[in-house]
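Late entry, written up from scratch paper. The run itself happened at the end of the previous shift, but nothing got recorded in the book at the time, so transcribing now.
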Amino acid sequence: MTKFQTGILRKYNTLIPMLLSAIGFSTACDPTPGMEYGVPHADFVVKGTIESFNDASPIPDIKVKMGYDSTYTDTEGKFSVENSGFPGDQTFQLEVTDVDGVANGEFNPVDTAIVFNDPEFTGGSGEWYEGKTEKEVIIKLKSDP
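Output as recorded:
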């Protein structure tokens, strides 16, 4: 290779990295957001009261389970369980079980479907999190003879 050709290659070897750097810096400060990856999701909350079928009195210490979340009713028979899912129509299985034996009477277990049709969400982030929706229920348990 001649000295002339070597000189041209050296100039190009210097020029190319400078051009690539300039292009990189000009696109790094782009104010438009890039593509986001994720899954839309929302929180579904079921609140309610567990009552006796016979006299509508609240039943404490009843286990309420919805998906991975479970709780026990308080002294007023109230509970709250939550699950996450795709923001849209959802159906969750609610399992209600008397686990304390004869302490407050014995009651038959109940499995019921909680349906969220056209839920309205509040408190979303404006991105993938749509927010939270709630549903109130009253569940009546029959005494176990």
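The first strand starts at residue 41 and ends at 52.
(Scratch paper discarded after transcription.)
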